[in-house]
Structure formats: structure tokens, C-alpha cells
């Protein structure tokens, strides 16, 4: 909002915005409707970009429950509800209009991505599970804009029990299915035994962004948060097998992307840069998945015993290349995109890439590290473009990430042996936390292998005495 248009100064605009936000938030929480979901999504994105995560988290939890009440987690004709004796109360009228159904579908997937992002950044469990989600992926934005009805495949969500370490990922649902994968499993079919060709040609950038975000959540949930006893050879082998399975799936996702979506620059004219925001986010989210998956292999916990050789150098190179590619994509997008701001997941991917370039502290960081920090400050500046004080740095989530990276770099330059907790994304402290990921724990007594008498408190982090407090906050979806 421009002060000259509203005849209000910046402080008055800020006060009025806060009052309006409170009114909208209060009314949206007290009602269960499509409109209230849309309003809360705007407020959540605003809180997340402002760095007020503690205000966004409860709203995300509310959103995930509300879409369940509105039955937006399933397709209207989903087979999973066809045999129910008692059906849920219907709060919104059914619709036969494809455009309206697609609008509801896209609304669900936005909330789904918020749920996954919240889980990835905090380490909390996801709220929307395979028991809840029976949804087709969103169609390409062109069909949605033209109101042209098309059919997209169902998206398979992994069951946490089926995907535990020690169990093969061959038993998890296939990414695409023509029918509700839950119903197929109830009928006794193998989740990966879909016959015939699955038509994914109607998918667009938003659908691939959903897929990439779910892959990031899978790396966090089914690898980083899985408990492991590094002194148990069988358990260590199972953990490494899970790494290889996830790595193969990530490589295949990138390899089998349709030609149109392989590059975030979707312009048919190579001399023109036209970067789709959803596709760009999909690519850097995929790179973030690669970094988080390979990092514990490249830099294993000190408690890791050499029962199984780890491809450390290969994984370290994978982390570096993914971080460099992220830096290139982010800089290119900020340079050529007319969009005035990016969402918080975009900033998070840049933050993880920068940490990956800084972690192996054996000399000056690569130039891409400094570029990522500058790009984060640019994201921060764009979000707070109407600030009064042009000399002060804006303090929002992108700015918090950038400021924390600068402090980490300063700590690394003062102590060449310093290594930070790579999996702590809170930016609250320079001191490593009391855990490592993956977790080192005793395996059950029924398992084979020996147990260590002592469990190290952490592996690839080093204690530092100095603390840094959290900076104080100042209180697209077409493809």
C-alpha cells in the first residue's frame, strides 16, 4: 500500500494492517468455509515471511484440520469413502463444475505444502498422512485458466509404518495412480503394480512443486528422523539402504521430468528468461532434498562405525553441486523475475544451500555462499520494500536467515575447527543442539549386533560457548 494513495504515513498503515489482520484472522478461525481457508492462507504466508513462525504454526494446524472437516482431503468421488456406513457431515455443497473442483483441489495442495514445510523446518510430525490424503494432483495452470476440464493422476502418500527403516520402499504407493491408491490396497493390489500407462501430461509446475515438497518431507521423515544404532551392523546397513533408495528416487524424479519442465526457464526462446515461480521452487526444493539426504553421509556422526563404507566424498560433492545449482537458480530468478517477492520456502532452500557451502570449514567459502547471503538480503528487502528507514536491514525470515549465516561465517573464521548443527534451522543459537540427525539410539534387544556402552551426545557438531539470540522481529500459483 502506497502512503501517497492512502494519505497515511507508514506507521498508520502498519497499525491499520495489524488491526485488519486480527479481524480477518478472528472471523476466519470462527467459521468453516472455503473463504476462511483462503483468508488464513494469506495470513500464514504473511506470518512466515515476516519471521513470526510461532504465530503461523497454530494456524497451519488449524488449516489441516479444517480441510478435513470440509472433506477437501479426498476427491468428491473417492472410492475410499464409497463403502462407509457412516459418512462425514458435509459442510460445503458438492459441485459438478470442474473449475470449482480444481480450485478446491489447488487450495488443498497449498495447505498440504504448508504442512510439509512446517514439518521439515521444525522436525514435527506431519498432520496430513496417507490415511487422510486421497487427492489428484493439480492440473497445469493453462487448463485451469481456460477452464478446460482434464483428469490428473492421484498422488501416492507414504505410510509411516510401511516406510520405516528396515522395510523396502518397494511397498510404498507409486507416485502416480489412475485410482485412489488406498482403495487399491484395500482390494489387495500391490501399490506399485499399476497396469498400463499413467497419463501425467496434464500436470504443470504447481504439481511438480507439490511433488518436490513431498520428497523433501520424505527425506526428513523417513531418513533424518529415523533412529539408528551405528554400533549395530544390521541396522547400519538398513539405514544406508534407505539412503540409496531415497537417492535413487530423487535422481529418477529429476531424470524423468518432461522436457518442458526440466529447466526453470520455461521460455521457448532461449534468449528470453521466463522463470515460472512454482517450477523454480520445485527445482531448488529438489536440490534441498539432495543436500539434506547426502549431508549425513558426507559428514557422518563420530559414533559411526565402519561396518559399512560410506561414499563420503561422492556425497560431499553432491551437496556442493546441489548448493551451487541452487545459488545459480536463485540469482537468476531474482534478476529476471518481475515478481516482487518470494515465499518463505524459497528463502529456506537458499538458507540450506548456503549452510552446505559453509559447513566443510577448511578455508574460505565458495563465492556462491556470499551470493546466497546477498540474495537472502535481497529477498528480505523486497518483502519489506515499504520500510521507513532505508539504512536499516529489514528483519523478516529471509533477513533472519541471512543474519544467521553471517554469524556462522564469523564463528567459522574465528575457529577453523568450529562446526555447527547443520539440521538446526531455527537460527536461535550458534551453539550446537543436544542431538544429531540421524539419531543415535540403542536398537531393540531382539536385533542382532553389539551395543555400545556409551552413547556420544552428538557426532558431527562441536560445542561452542557463545550464544546468539534470535533477532527481534518487527511487528503464485498459476502453473
TrEMBL record:
Q: Localized where?
A: Nucleus
A Gene Ontology CC term for this entry? nucleus
Which terms does the record give in the GO molecular function aspect? DNA binding; DNA-binding transcription factor activity, RNA polymerase II-specific; zinc ion binding
User: Which InterPro entries does this chain map to?
Assistant: TF_fung (IPR050815), XnlR_reg_dom (IPR007219)
Name the segments for region: Disordered.
451-479
Q: Which PANTHER family would you find in this protein's record?
A: ZN(II)2CYS6 TRANSCRIPTION FACTOR (EUROFUNG) (PTHR47338:SF23), ZN(II)2CYS6 TRANSCRIPTION FACTOR (EUROFUNG)-RELATED (PTHR47338)
Q: What is this protein called?
A: Xylanolytic transcriptional activator regulatory domain-containing protein
The record lists the lineage as: Eukaryota, Fungi, Dikarya, Ascomycota, Pezizomycotina
Amino acid at each position: 500500500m502506497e502512503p501517497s494513495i492512502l494519505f497515511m504515513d507508514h506507521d498508520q498503515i502498519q497499525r491499520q494492517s495489524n488491526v485488519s489482520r486480527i479481524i480477518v484472522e478472528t472471523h476466519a478461525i470462527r467459521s468453516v468455509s472455503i473463504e476462511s481457508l483462503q483468508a488464513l492462507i494469506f495470513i500464514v504466508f504473511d506470518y512466515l515471511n515476516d519471521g513470526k513462525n510461532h504465530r503461523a504454526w497454530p494456524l497451519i494446524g488449524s488449516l489441516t484440520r479444517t480441510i478435513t472437516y470440509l472433506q477437501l482431503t479426498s476427491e468428491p468421488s473417492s472410492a475410499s469413502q464409497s463403502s462407509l456406513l457412516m459418512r462425514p457431515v458435509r459442510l460445503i455443497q458438492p459441485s459438478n463444475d470442474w473449475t470449482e473442483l480444481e480450485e478446491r483441489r489447488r487450495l488443498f495442495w497449498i495447505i498440504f505444502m504448508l504442512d510439509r514445510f512446517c514439518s521439515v523446518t521444525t522436525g514435527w510430525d506431519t498432520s496430513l498422512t496417507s490415511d487422510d490424503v486421497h487427492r489428484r494432483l493439480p492440473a497445469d495452470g493453462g487448463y485451469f485458466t481456460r477452464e478446460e476440464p482434464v483428469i490428473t493422476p492421484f498422488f501416492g502418500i507414504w505410510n509411516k509404518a510401511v516406510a520405516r527403516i528396515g522395510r523396502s520402499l518397494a511397498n510404498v504407493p507409486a507416485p502416480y495412480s489412475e485410482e485412489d491408491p488406498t482403495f487399491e490396497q484395500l482390494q489387495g493390489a500391490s501399490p506399485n503394480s499399476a497396469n498400463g500407462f499413467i497419463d501425467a501430461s496434464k500436470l504443470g509446475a504447481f504439481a511438480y512443486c507439490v511433488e518436490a515438497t513431498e520428497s523433501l518431507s520424505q527425506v526428513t521423515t523417513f531418513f533424518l528422523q529415523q533412529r539408528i544404532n551405528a554400533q549395530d551392523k544390521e541396522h547400519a546397513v538398513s539405514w544406508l539402504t534407505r539412503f540409496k533408495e531415497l537417492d535413487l528416487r530423487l535422481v529418477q524424479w529429476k531424470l524423468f521430468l518432461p522436457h518442458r519442465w526440466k529447466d526453470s526457464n520455461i521460455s521457448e526462446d532461449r534468449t528470453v528468461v521466463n522463470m515460472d515461480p512454482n517450477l523454480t521452487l520445485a527445482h531448488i526444493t529438489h536440490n534441498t532434498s539432495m543436500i539434506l539426504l547426502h549431508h549425513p553421509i558426507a559428514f557422518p556422526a563420530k559414533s559411526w562405525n565402519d561396518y559399512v563404507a560410506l561414499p563420503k566424498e561422492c556425497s560431499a560433492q553432491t551437496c556442493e553441486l546441489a548448493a551451487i545449482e541452487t545459488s545459480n537458480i536463485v540469482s537468476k530468478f531474482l534478476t529476471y523475475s518481475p515478481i516482487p517477492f518470494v515465499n518463505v520456502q524459497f528463502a529456506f532452500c537458499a538458507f540450506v544451500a548456503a549452510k552446505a557451502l559453509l559447513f566443510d570449514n577448511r578455508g574460505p567459502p565458495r563465492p556462491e555462499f556470499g551470493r546466497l547471503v546477498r540474495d537472502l538480503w535481497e529477498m528480505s528487502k523486497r518483502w519489506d520494500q515499504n520500510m521507513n528507514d532505508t539504512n536499516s536491514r529489514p528483519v523478516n525470515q529471509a533477513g533472519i536467515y541471512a543474519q544467521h549465516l553471517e554469524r556462522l561465517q564469523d564463528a567459522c573464521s574465528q575457529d577453523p575447527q568450529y562446526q555447527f548443527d547443520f539440521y538446526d534451522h531455527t537460527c536461535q543459537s550458534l551453539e550446537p543442539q543436544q542431538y544429531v540427525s540421524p539419531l543415535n539410539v540403542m536398537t531393540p534387544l531382539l536385533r542382532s549386533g553389539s551395543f555400545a556402552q556409551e552413547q556420544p551426545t552428538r557426532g558431527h557438531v562441536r560445542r561452542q560457548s557463545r550464544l546468539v539470540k534470535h533477532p527481534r522481529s518487527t511487528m503464485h500459483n498459476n502453473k
